[in-house]
Amino acid sequence: xxxxxxxxxxxxxGILSQFSGDANTLKELGDFPSDVYPVGRxxxxxxxxxxxxxxxxxxxxxxxxxxxHQRTYLAQVEGIPTAEAIAQLENGVDINVDGKMYHTKKAxxxxxxxxxxxxxxxxxxxxxxxxxxxxxxxxxIEGKNRQVRKMTAAVGFPTLRLVRYAMENLSIxxxxxxxxxxxxxATLLSLLKIV
Length: 195
What we know:
Blueprint: E1 6-11, E2 37-38, E3 47-53, H1 56-63, E4 71-78, H2 83-91, E5 94-97, E6 100-103, E7 108-111, E8 133-140, H3 147-154, E9 159-167, E10 170-171, E11 180-182, H4 185-191
Parallel strand pairs: 3-9
Antiparallel strand pairs: 1-3, 1-11, 2-3, 4-8, 4-9, 5-6, 7-8, 9-10
């Protein structure tokens, strides 16, 4: 029986969260075993933490809504969100999910005083002198399709750059864009707070 392998990736902007296809896929980041796959997804235009494994039970656990795992996102948004907008994000907003309105679960949100320490994005976001931007840290326990982007747009501050920074205590702190690190199961489960 093959042993389980665990890879933590800082997925770059513009890369699809899959191995199939000719260009701009996870294959470009390394030579992975043929039986591994991403746990969850990050959109092509999002970047950050992606876990790749062949451990089906861990995959099932992390994607099961009954086990609420905290995910931390850093979102660079257009404009400077008001205290009211931050409160709306925390209390939940209505977004469209598969053609139906969905009220997001309670979250933690804060406006950051300064930009987080992240590697530069390639290509960089378009800078506009006339429109200020700012960074929000958002902690969610769910992951609907394009949820963070839909949430910030719903409160009037569209997302310009989105980075999934952490899942529980597993983070991409100190990673370079495109970096891949293999991790052992015990360390990974400890960081993910799975006992």
